[in-house]
Structure formats: C-alpha cells, structure tokens
C-alpha cells in the first residue's frame, strides 16, 4: 500500500463516524476478516450462533482489528461480540427472559426504579456494538431470529413523563443514564438529557454508562460536539454541586489501546470522573492474572474499577457464566494488588430483582447444587434470591439432577430452606 493510502486509512480509522458507518452487521461481511476459512466452517459456525442468539450482530472495525483471527474461537474479544454455534450450551433451567425483572420495576416507560434513591434511565435501545451477554437482550438492539424486542419507544415522547416522575419523586438522588448506550445519542439529545436532569434539585449524582470507550474510543477524540456536550454537562454539574460521572465497560486488558489512552487522557484532563464496570466471563477474564492486568491498566488511566458482575442469566451465554466460587477466588486474588479504591467489588445482580449483592455475601451456598442464596435487605427484605452456578461447573451427577424438573425444584427448595435456617439461628 502506498504511504498516502496508508495515512488516509489511519485517518479514517481514527474517525468515529467512519467506524460507525463501517460497523459489521451481517455474517458475510466477516468473510474478508476470516482469511483462512476455505471450507467455510467458521462462517457456518457463526451463522449457527447467530440463529440462536438473542442479540443482533454489530461490531466496529476497531474491535474486529483487535481480534486475533488466527485464534478466532478462543479470542476473548471475539467471544464477547461474535457468537459461534459450537460453543453454545443449553440454558440453565432457572433462566427467564429479563431475569432481573426490570420491566416489573418500571413506574414509567424507560425508567427502572428498584432501589430507593437511584434509578436507571433507558435513553435508547441502540448501542455502538452488541454484546452477547447483554442483560437487556429483551429490548436492546434489532430483532433477531429468536427474539422480537420489547421496543423502547422514541425517547422524546417518554422524556417529559420521565422528568415529571423524577420531579415528584425527590427521594431519587442518583440517575444512571444507560440503555442502550449514550454513544448512540446525538450531542443535542445528550445535552438535553443532562441539562434536564440537572434542572431537578433533588438529583445529586448523574452517571452516563457506556460501552463506548471500550469499543469506539475515537468518538471522544473525533466527535468534538459529542465530547463537548458531555464536558458541558459535567462542568454545569460541578458548578451546582452535582457529580457527573462516566461509567465505562472494559472486560479485557487487550481492549485498552493507544486510542483508549488518548480518549481517557482527554476526558481526565477535561475533568470527567470515570469508573469501570466489567462482566466476569469464562474464556474472557475468568483468570486472576487477566483481571489484575485489567485493574492496573484502568487505574493508570484514572478509570476507577468499580464493579465486576457475574454474568446475568441470559439466553445463549451459558458457556460464559462462571460459578460464585470462581468469582470469590478471583476477587481474593485481585484485592490488595493496588489501591483499595481501585479494587472492584465483585457482585451478583440477583435474578428476580433483589439487586446487586457482594458475591461473598450469600446467606447459603451449596457448591454441589451450585445454588447461592442472597438477601437484599435494602430492596426486598422479606425475600430470598438465588443465583445458580452454570451447570458445566457442577459434577455430572448434579448436572443430571438439574435437568429433572422434580429434582431441580427440590434443590431450589433445599437451598432456600438452608438459608432460612441459618438466618433464624442468627436472629
Ligand atoms: C445497577 C443499578 C443501579 C445503580 O446501582 P449502583 O450499585 O449504585 O451502581 C440502579 N438501578 C438499577 C435498576 C440497577 O440495576
Ligand atoms: S453496550 Fe451495554 S446495553 Fe449495549 S449490548 Fe452491550 S451490554 Fe447491552
């Protein structure tokens, strides 16, 4: 390639609009990246994966470029965004769509109010890329062969209702703007949301949660209008004593590149507070060394590692889930390697809507049946919440028990009973 062509390409590659425009959304577009797949086995594997997946395909050239295509099946970045049929496992018998019961905790369309003083605002149903493990696979992204999405209706028509609810519910001090992903919002929309929320005196903290920095970091350095909108909100917030923060979503140290460094430096210089939330996934970051590297790299970028979530129960990602035991082990390995405030809390977002719990804080955990039972005193004090380890982490005997509905019910009942007995002893 001539030098000029190469320079042009580099210039284009660093442009978020170009990345968006060239995002891959169809299997056949992957062919040119695959190289040695002469007999088409890999492509067919991806097709089979997508046919079962609840999430549509969308991946930026930037991310495609980070995949090690010679090790396609094992690559930690590939695993997050491109499904293959050969790795899929049957879902856990306890899986239900929308396992966190978000729609049941929605007082108005597009707002999840589960905890007392904080809410989740679903600003859009689009993302710069689609992750296989998305909790909101019931609504985010385009319809797939297996899921017709519950549409998040156009934001403008819901916005006034959301603002009105927040205004008359002053107990809410904390708003998480999520979705979907605010990277897909126009700068004017982003600004309107930020300033709208800032006009409500009871709101003390606003976070913008985005996968963007991890999958499209050049947005920050090339879409000046968007970055200015974010900085304007942050500055306006600071002026009136409201904390604005930016929550990123990095899962593997290889997702941190020169583009990421440039973007994070820019945001840090412009006074944006940043924190990171990761998802613990088998074959991606279920290794203490990988997690340690990630934590160190993020800390150096002044992105505070905040949470590591165990995978939610989502269809098509059973092979990526990790046991509670493994999550606890990795947490123990990570704690102490750096500043405590840069050490993430490992959490389980409990199925059934109990909210996030420290993974170590189960009331009862049976490693044979793989059931961990949690209490959520501040959310639903009278209820117990159960998180199941993935079947592949259990003995063959326990696995067989789980596929028998009668024995499965028995195991569930036994775990809840054991937790209650323990709690009665304490009280
Ligand atoms: C995660 C979450 C929040 C924010 O919780 P933090 O623990 O403060 O990060 C708020 N609402 C819902 C429904 C959530 O799932
Ligand atoms: S960016 Fe977030 S909301 Fe969007 S698909 Fe990924 S996990 Fe889901």
Q: Any overview of this molecule?
A:
GO terms for molecular function: 4 iron, 4 sulfur cluster binding; catalytic activity; metal ion binding. Its cofactor is [4Fe-4S] cluster; pyridoxal 5'-phosphate. InterPro entries: Aldolase_TIM (IPR013785), Lys_aminomutase/Glu_NH3_mut (IPR003739), rSAM (IPR007197), rSAM_sf (IPR058240). With 427 residues, the protein is of the alpha/beta class. It has 3 domains: 12-87, no CATH class; 103-356, Aldolase class I (TIM Barrel, Alpha-Beta Barrel); 362-427, no CATH class. The protein has helices at residues 3-13, 16-21, 31-34, 41-52, 61-66, 76-81, 155-167, 187-198, 212-215, 218-222, 224-239, 258-269, 288-300, 324-334, 396-402, 405-426, and strands spanning 111-112, 118-122, 174-178, 205-209, 243-248, 273-280, 303-310, 345-350, 355-358, 364-366, 371-376, 380-388. The strands form 2 sheets. It has a 9-stranded mixed beta sheet with strand order 1-2-3-4-5-6-7-8-9. The longest helix has 22 residues, at 405-426. The protein is globular. The protein binds pyridoxal-5'-phosphate and iron/sulfur cluster. Iron/sulfur cluster is lined by residues 127, 130-131, 134, 136, 140, 179-181, 211.
């Amino acid at each position: 390639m001539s030098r000029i062509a190469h320079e042009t390409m580099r210039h284009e590659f660093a442009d978020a609009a170009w990345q968006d425009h060239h995002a891959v959304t169809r299997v056949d577009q992957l062919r040119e990246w695959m190289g040695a797949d002469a007999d088409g086995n890999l492509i067919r594997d991806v097709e089979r994966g997508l046919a079962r997946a609840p999430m549509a395909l969308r991946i930026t050239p930037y991310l495609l470029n980070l995949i090690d295509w010679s090790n396609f099946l094992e690559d930690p970045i590939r695993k997050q965004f491109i499904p293959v049929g050969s790795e899929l496992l049957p879902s856990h018998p306890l899986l239900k769509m929308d396992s966190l019961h978000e729609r049941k905790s929605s007082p108005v369309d597009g707002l999840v109010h589960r905890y007392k003083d904080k809410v989740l605002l679903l600003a859009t149903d689009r993302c710069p890329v689609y992750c296989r493990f998305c909790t909101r696979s019931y609504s985010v992204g385009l319809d797939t062969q297996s899921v017709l999405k519950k549409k998040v209706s156009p934001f403008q028509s819901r916005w006034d209702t959301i603002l009105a609810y927040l205004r008359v519910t002053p107990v809410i001090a904390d708003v998480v703007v999520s979705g979907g992903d605010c990277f897909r919002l126009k700068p004017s929309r982003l600004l309107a949301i930020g300033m709208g929320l800032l006009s409500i005196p009871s709101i003390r903290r606003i976070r913008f949660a985005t996968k963007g920095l991890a999958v499209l970091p050049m947005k920050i350095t090339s879409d000046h209008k968007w970055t200015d909108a974010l900085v304007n909100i942050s500055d306006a917030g600071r002026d009136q004593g409201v904390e604005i923060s930016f929550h990123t979503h990095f899962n593997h140290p290889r997702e941190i590149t020169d583009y990421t460094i440039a973007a994070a430096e820019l945001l840090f210089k412009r006074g944006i507070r940043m924190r990171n939330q990761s998802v613990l996934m088998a074959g991606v970051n279920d290794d203490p060394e990988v997690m340690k590297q990630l934590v160190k790299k993020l800390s150096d970028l002044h992105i505070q590692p905040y949470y590591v979530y165990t995978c939610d129960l989502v269809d098509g990602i059973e092979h990526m889930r990790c046991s509670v035991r493994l999550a606890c082990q990795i947490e123990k390995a990570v704690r102490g390697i750096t500043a405590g405030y840069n050490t993430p809390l490992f959490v389980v977002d409990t199925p059934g809507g109990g909210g996030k719990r420290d993974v170590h804080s189960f009331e009862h955990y049976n490693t044979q049946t793989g059931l961990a039972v949690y209490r959520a005193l501040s959310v639903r004090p009278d209820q117990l919440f159960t998180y199941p380890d993935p079947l592949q982490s259990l003995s063959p005997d326990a696995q067989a028990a789980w596929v028998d509905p009668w024995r499965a019910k028995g195991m569930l009942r036994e775990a809840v009973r054991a937790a209650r007995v323990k709690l009665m002893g304490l009280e």
